[in-house]
Amino acid sequence: MKNSLTVKNLSISVPSAKGRVAVVDDVSFEIPAGKKVGLVGESGSGKSLTAYALMRLIKDPVSIDGGEIFLDGRDVLGLSNKEFRLLRGKQIAMIYQDPMSALNPIMRIGQQIIESIQLHSPSSEAVARKIAIELLESVGIPEPERRIDSYPFEMSGGMLQRVVIAIALSGKPQVLIADEATTALDVTTQARVLTLIDKLAAERGLSVLLITHDLGVAAQFSDEIMVMYAGKLVENGSVNQIFSNPAHPYTKALLDSRCDYTIDVNKPINSIAGQPPRPDNRPSGCVFSPRCEHVKEDCTTSVPPLIHSQGRLTACFRADEIFQVERVK
Amino acid sequence: MRQYFIRRAISSSIVFVTSVVMVFLSIRILPGDPVLARLGAATEVTPEALKALREEAGLDRPLLAQLFSWISNALRGDLGVSYFSQFPVSDLVAQHIPVTLELTFFIVLLACIFSIILAPLSILKPGGGIDRIIGYFTSIGLSIPGFIVGIVLTLIFSLRLQWLPSIGYVPFTESPGENLQLMILPSVTGALTATPYLVKYLRASMLEIKQSSYIRTAEGKGLSNSHIMFRHILPNSLVPTLTMLGLIVGYTLSGVIVIEYMFGLPGIGSLAIESAFKRDYAIIQAVALTIIGLFILTTLLFDIACGLVDPRLRLSKERQLEV
Questions:
Q1: CATH number at residue B257
Q2: Same domain, yes or no: B30 and B145
Q3: Average pLDDT, whole number, for chain A?
Q4: Are residues B244 and B169 in the same domain?
Q5: How many domains, in total, are found in chain B?
Q6: 20 to 30 Å CA-CA from A118: which of A77, A274, B99, B298?
Q7: Is the pLDDT of residue B20 over 50?
Q8: Does B267 map to a domain?
Q9: What percent of chain B has pLDDT above 70?
Q10: Does B222 sit within 8 Å of A116, measured CB to CB?
Q11: Hey, is the C-beta of A153 within 8 angstroms of any chain B C-beta?
Q12: How far apart are CA A249 and CA A314, in angstroms?
């Protein structure tokens, strides 16, 4: 099957007192055309940086140290800035977190959409304006003819997130990255925006990378799930595999510490003991080993590779055992 | 917005009155006497004659009485007459002010042009070669006083190269060409002292905005660097910079005194200096009044301009937040 997006051995580093340290470490994945993939993990696990790397929006002092990114077969990191600018917004676009600060505060929202439309398909102001109104309508903004002349401060968070989505769609991209697109919104608005992205993706046949720390959101939305921990991809499989039958202890621990209406209110909420390691203080061997309840000697000395196991990709030496234990339960 | 203007008007009037009174009192506290200055080298001066002259000018009255009569006259638009030439002061100020306004206009125009070129250049690559060179020049510019810049420019362009006249004034209405030619050196001198402040401020403001999320959104659209710089970063950084520019215009208005005097321009500054030598109180007071008034007016105008650039300031009260 054709892949819209392929990432191979991506590494991103930041400077620290101990020299440059990797915050995204040897991450590889593929997003097949038309599929929706969820990338989940705690704050600081490197999800957003991975997304910015795909858009080539990584800025000093953060830098991409290695790896390859292929967008529709083209090597993204090998292109010059100018060459990539032609793809940015047109092939790959991003919905940013925190819509309140993602829009230029002194420019009308219409103009912010129109400039993108005109960039990707040269058209007159009037034509571009018409397209912008259609876009606003398609993202569910009422009275788009009037709202197009609003300034960001005149709109609510949910409406602004729709504007950000409209901007992302304005270049007719094939790949859409939604970086915590619903995190800044309240739960009902969250559901509406998510349904909207889902609908638009289906209509336009988009490949979507949904980045979230909310397992529920990821499960509801995605075809596939990737779990990231401390800069590493630890498990990658279908929604069903990941949620019903995790094979990586971190995924399992993450699911066990979920908190929703199905849990027993009389029991304390599970949590994973300890903290994720800081980028400048990552353990040798498996990054999760210090917090893992299944840890054995091997885990602290060598790094488990992300390999096929039980029908999905898992980076754990004891994946098979954990998978069996989980299945019996 | 209306409430803002009322508050603004009240605070401006307080500033205005306080500074005018301070000028009035301070020139009278200074040693020197207009009557003696007027008599000059006359040898036979009797105390009676001096007294008569003082009474005639009202200078024998108590300070407060002089202050109040001056203020009440000024409120009626009567600024008095020059003690020396006996010309009405308002005429003198009206004659000299166009030169000052023209000079200030050119200084600010040039400073804006320089800054709008230099600030974006320096944030292209913060800490890079261009940024450092611009940084050195702004530091040098900040530390060299304006009259030194003027002297150096005159030495080079007027005396050595003989490209430009160094002194004199021709009204624009008489000969626009000559007028502009005579304005070049004084304007550049003033602009070179004002630009460093503006560049430093604009650079800091642009740098901050360059890091913001909405600039990342703009980059994510695939927009070119120059589009992002001039359509997104610059307009947003103008909001805080305009207030600063208002202050710079105000300082320039009062600071051109030295430049006018140096280049022999008959502006309000030259008028003030001549009158100060002669202790011509009425003129000094009127000049101070004018400069203070213009200062307050420009800062107010620039605050209004901020509202024009930033819709949040302009519309926040007019339109209701729509959800």
A1: 1.10.3720.10
A2: no
A3: 88
A4: yes
A5: 2
A6: A77
A7: yes
A8: yes
A9: 92
A10: yes
A11: yes
A12: 10
A144 touches chain B (CB under 8 A): no
- Measure the CA–CA gap between B251 and B246, rounded to whole angstroms: 9
- Does B4 fall in a domain? no
Short-list A22, A16, A9, A121, CA closest to A63: A22
The pTM for the full model equals: 0.81
Q: State pLDDT tens for residues A27-63.
A: 999 998 889 999 998 888 899 999 999 999 988 889 9
Which of A104, A155, A161 to mutate: most B Cβ within 10 Å?
A: A104
Q: What is the pLDDT of residues B142-181, one digit of tens each?
A: 898 888 888 888 888 878 887 887 777 878 788 788 888 8
| Residue B24, token pair as written in the block | 């009035």
Cβ of B312 and A151 within 8 Å?
yes
Residues B260, B195 share a domain: yes
Residue B38's pLDDT band (cuts 50, 70, 90)? low
Q: Point out the residue among B224, B232, B312 whose CB comes nearest to the CB of A153.
A: B312
pLDDT of A329 over the 80 cut: no
pLDDT band at B17 (very low <50, low <70, confident <90, very high): confident
Q: How far apart are CA A88 and CA A130, in angstroms?
A: 23
The answer on B109 and B35 residing in a single domain is no
Question: How confident is the model over A255-275, as a mean pLDDT?
Answer: 78
Q: Helix B281-309 and helix B268-278: axis angle, to 10°?
A: 150
Instruction: Decide which of A182 and A7 is more confident.
Output: A7
Can you give the residue range of the structural domain that contains B55?
A: 13-75
Q: Within this chain, do residues B177 and B239 fall inside the same structural domain, yes or no?
A: yes
Q: Is residue B162 part of a domain?
A: yes
Shared domain for B118 and B263, answered yes or no, is: yes
Residues B37 and B106 in one domain: no
Q: Is residue B6 assigned to a domain? A: no
Q: Which residue has the higher pLDDT, B254 or A168?
A: A168
Which residue from B220, B309, B321 is facing A154, i.e. has the nearest CB?
A: B321
Residue B211 in tokens: 């890091």
B245-260 in b/e burial notation, b at 16+ Cβ within 10 A?
bbebbbebbbbbbbbb
Give the gap in angstroms from C-alpha B1 to the nearest C-alpha of chain A.
Answer: 17
Specify whether B98 is located in the same domain as B132: yes
Q: Residue A93's closest chain B neighbor by CA?
A: B220
Check residue A92 and give its pLDDT: 92
For B221, the closest of A119, A150, A154 (CB atoms) is A119
